[in-house]
Design goal:
One of its GO terms (cellular component) is cytoplasm. This is O-acetylhomoserine sulfhydrylase. InterPro entries: Cys/Met-Metab_PyrdxlP-dep_enz, NAD(P)-bd_dom_sf, OAc-hSer/O-AcSer_sulfhydrylase, PyrdxlP-dep_Trfase, PyrdxlP-dep_Trfase_major, PyrdxlP-dep_Trfase_small. By secondary structure, the chain is α/β, with parallel strands linked by helices. It folds into three domains: about 220 residues, 3-Layer(aba) Sandwich (Aspartate Aminotransferase, domain 2), CATH 3.40.640; about 140 residues, Aspartate Aminotransferase, domain 1 (Alpha-Beta Complex), CATH 3.90.1150.10; about 120 residues, Rossmann fold (3-Layer(aba) Sandwich), CATH 3.40.50.720. The chain contains 21 helices and 19 strands. The protein has a seven-stranded mixed β-sheet, with helices on both faces. A five-stranded mixed β-sheet has the order 8-9-12-11-10. The chain has a five-stranded parallel β-sheet with strand order 16-15-17-18-19, with helices on both faces. Strand 13 and strand 14 form a beta hairpin.
Length: about 550
Amino acid sequence: MTNFQFPRSETTLLHGGQQVDPATNARAVPIYQTTSYVFNNTEHAQNLFALAEMGNIYSRIMNPTVDAFEQRIALLEDGVAAVGTASGASAITLAILNLANAGDEIIADSNLYGGTFNLFNKTLPKYGIDVKFVDGTDPENFRSAITEKTKAIYGEVITNPSLNVLDLEVIADIAHENGIPLIIDNTFATPYVCKPISWGRRYCRTLCNKMDWWHGTSIGGVVVDSGRFNWNSERFPGFTEPDDSYNGIRFGIDIGPPAFAIKLRVQLLRDIGPSLSPQNAFYFLQGLETLHLRIQQHSENTKVVANYLENHPQVEWVSYPGLENHPSNKLAKKYFFRNLFGSIIVFGIKGGKEAGRQVIDNVKLWSHVANVGGDAKSLIIHPASTTHQQLNAEELKSSGVTEELIRLSVGIESADDIIADLDQAIATATNSEPTIKANADQAISWALSSPLARENGEIRPKTIAVAGAIEQSEALVKLQKLGYQVIPADNIDGDVDILFVVDSNEAENAYSDQAKIVWFAEGQTNESVKGKAEANGQIIIENKCPYQEADRLRRGE
């Protein structure tokens, strides 16, 4: 019976591209922190330098740790080869330089990450490579811009920061019909969510930037060669003319499917040298092992945050491909696996640029940094004044960046904590009331999750002031043993967190407006005290045993 079993993405993320180290039998991929490698003999060295056989010469070109990472990514993207680079920017640059020379053109979507836009708009033209920008939301714009000088079409699966989804299949057909490759940046989606190569008959490669897969600890990029493009074409003389530095090899004729990746490695990595370090490759391999778990949590949290923002009275608009009303929602559902839509949201705050800046200046949990995507932490930035600040007004408009736009990269913290921090920041920035109000369940969780209050870098016992005799409540005695400071209500000196009413007859005299919570023991109540507590914004809890609630929380219920 035929066996059709093959490794799924989750398995490839952990095992792809790795052979057990033959010298040590190490289970993890070893870090080969070396510059060079010993040749077996002079013939072996000669063959390696002539590309007659593949192997390690110098870590600028190839390294075993980096190779394991490259193979794993190639498997994930369904490519034939991959080349790791020192950054996402270097991956994009090398991909363009590998096929374009002075006098050539690239057609690019105008909705791009600011660094890529600047590379295309300012740097590449200095070297004679012209980039034409078109509105990628209409694929026909790419077709109409193609000329005899065009060497590739470039776009991002999810554009940064406008979050449009590229129509991969249609644009791939346009590229194929014109005999040019399609270069795709798959940073925001990742190959766990989207596999662009599978949608294009003639995909050249997928570029995966540094930002969407790791933990915010390392910079790197990777170029993946699909192996599906025929480079034996007069349009690409760099692939058909002999390379004298390798004994006249013609990459598009003599190499086969991985021609693009091999040419990039042995020419551009050799000559320019933006190589991925083995240490960073090791970090990336570690990140890949849990990518599928993190991506699912990122996406789940992001959907919650997007729905919250969509219903917020101080938010003018929200853009997230997972929302049904997003213009790219149908494309996202077509191209993205597992109903996952990424971790990036952009939204506009009422009050424009200044309100947007105030939101960012008032967050506490969110980090104001420039990277995005799979960093486990939640990140926030104002693109118009940072990542896209070098663009003029017309360029900002064409790239989808408006002054009120705030970009969020939603992390894997508790969704409740993520939203609570964003809510208080929006309230402060817009001089409005928070939309998230404290409730009894939140108060119980805070009060009983730990006997310690941790505020402003200080730790102290939580204080329960008791109206009535402490010994009347078995629950209070147990909480005292857990580490809570339990005191009579007439002996308050300093912070008090909970006023616990054991005897409602004593509640009036014992009432304290300092307490965050007024908790009535089962069977106890006092309407006058409840009225005061409501007026002071204190949380009222009734008919719940604190020790039973603490036990429930310990069980994770």
